[in-house]
Each structure stands twice: as C-alpha cells, then as structure tokens.
Amino acid sequence: MKITPTKILQFIEGNIKMFGDKFHLLAQHEKEQVAYRSQICKDECMKLGYCVYCGCNLPGKLYVTQSCNNGERFPDLMPHTNWEKFKSDNNITN
After folding, report:
1. Extended beta strands in 14-77, E state
2. How many helices (H) and strands (E) does the chain have?
3. Residue 93: its pLDDT value, please?
4. Over the stretch 14-49, which tens digit does the pLDDT of each residue have?
5. pLDDT, position 1
6. How many domains does the chain have?
7. Residue 41 domain flag
8. Does a structural domain hold residue 94?
9. Is residue 49 part of a domain?
C-alpha cells in the first residue's frame, strides 16, 4: 500500500467516525451504510482485516465517505434521502 496524503486523511476520517460510532454519535443512515459495506466485504476484506482495493485497515476504512472501489462494490457514503432511495432500489432491508 502506498501512503498518500489522501489515504492519511481517510485514515483520520474513518477512525474518528468509528470512534464516534462507539459513543453513539454517528447518524443512523451512516451506521446502516457501514454495516452494508461490512456485509458486502465479509468474505474477503473483513477476513483479511484490510481492503483488497486500497490496502487500508478495517474496520476504520468502512467509515470513510469516499468509496475506494469506484462504486464497484458499494458507493460513497450518502446523505439520508439518497441512502433511503438506494435501499429501496436495491431491496436492502435493515
């Protein structure tokens, strides 16, 4: 994994949001998207402990707004209304 300024900022973002989640400070729609990402990546990245696309550590990477896989596996974290539409369009249930 190549360390870049973007990856450093994403590491900070992901870990701050993950820390906030532990104290119930993360919005429900973001918690759902993190859980969705975890489910999508359960058989590969989650088992390895890092993202196979970018090499970043999990679970912190799951909290980063920008998707590292250009939407191949999952999109960027979305605002509430967009997430609700995405769930509806893709038959995702809580």
Report:
1. none
2. 4, 0
3. 85
4. 999 999 999 999 999 999 999 999 999 999 999 999
5. 73
6. 1
7. yes
8. no
9. yes
Residue 20 lies inside a defined structural domain of this protein:
yes
Using CA atoms, how far residue 93 sits from 38, 66, 83, 84, 86, in Å, is: 15, 22, 12, 10, 11
Q: Which residues of 10-35 are buried (b: 16+ CB within 10 A; e: fewer)?
A: bbebbbebbeebeeeebeebbebbbe
Residues in the chain: 94
CA distances from 11 to 4, 75, 85 (A): 11, 18, 28
Peptide bond preceding 5: is omega within 30 degrees of 0, i.e. cis?
A: no
Q: What are the φ and ψ backbone dihedral angles of 57, each rounded to 5 degrees? A: -75, 145
Each residue's pLDDT tens digit, 44-85: 999 999 999 988 899 999 999 999 999 899 999 999 999 999
- What domain range is 59 assigned to? 5-89
